[in-house]
Specification:
Strand order of the largest sheet: 1-2
Number of domains: 1
Largest sheet: 2 strands, antiparallel
Number of helices: 2
Number of strands: 4
Order of helices and strands: EEHEEH
Strand content: 5-15%
Radius of gyration: 15 Å
Distance between the termini: 28 Å
Structural class: alpha+beta
């Protein structure tokens, strides 16, 4: 999410990912249908992600067990 909304306050969640230098983020807007901020070069908005995923129909992804704190990536096998 780009932010968490609690009552009248909004907490900038995406900014925390950027500050932590997280690898890749897929950003879901908390309000409306579109992300209203500039994303880092390799990050994707939810709509961009869905558009790219539509091209992958028929590709099977196999689950891989990872520790709870590990970063997760979906890779084509």
């Amino acid at each position: 999410m780009d932010e968490i909304i609690r009552g009248d306050k909004s907490i900038p969640l995406y900014r925390r990912d950027v500050d932590a230098e997280a690898p890749l983020a897929i950003v879901i807007p908390a309000r409306g249908s579109f992300v209203r901020m500039n994303l880092r070069e390799n990050d994707l908005s939810w709509n961009e992600f869905l558009g790219k995923a539509g091209n992958m129909r028929g590709v099977e992804y196999i689950a891989v067990e990872k520790p709870a704190g590990a970063y997760y990536m979906i890779q084509k096998m």
